[in-house]
Amino acid sequence: MTLPMTKPAKRTQKDKIGIYIKRQAWILFILTVIAWILDVSWLHSELTVAKSAAIGALLSFATQAVFAFFIFWYTGYRARQHIVSQLYRGQMAKWLLTVFGFALIFITVQPLSAPALFIGFMVMQISHSWMLWHIR
Q: What is the pLDDT of residues 24-66, one digit of tens each?
């Protein structure tokens, strides 16, 4: 008696997430370069706008990377309870890092352009959401 062939295992989402984290690193770099070019050629703010946008984008990138690290700590069907708990832990770590990151930035970085900081942060958040939409 022969058993029917089964389908090979699919690659995990972890592989795709690694690719998208690298792409987000490129978006971070491109956003920093664009902010620098705009600051030097048009705004003439002694790189305050470029620095603020880069810091905001870097904060967003770092918190997303920490969240991804928490999510993919465990894999497989048997680890489903751990995966759910890691999801909550990762989300809490992401929010805490974001709040304390913004507080630390506002306290320590002078001069700072708050609109540029939030724009850099939001551009990275939007790019992250766009990439997650493409994973599906």
A: 899 999 999 999 999 899 888 888 999 999 999 999 999 998 9
- 16: Cβ contacts below 8 Å, ≥ 6 apart: 135
Q: Is the peptide bond before 115 cis (omega within 30 degrees of 0)?
A: no
What is the model's pTM? 0.81
Alpha helix ranges (H) inside the chain: 13-38, 48-71, 80-108, 114-135
Nearest to 70 by CA among 56, 81, 84: 84
pLDDT digits (tens, 9 = 90+) for 103-136: 999 999 999 999 999 999 999 999 888 877 876 6
Rounded to whole angstroms, how far apart are CA atoms 113 and 76?
A: 45
Structure tokens given for 21:
């984290």
- What is Dmax (Cα atoms) for the chain? 78
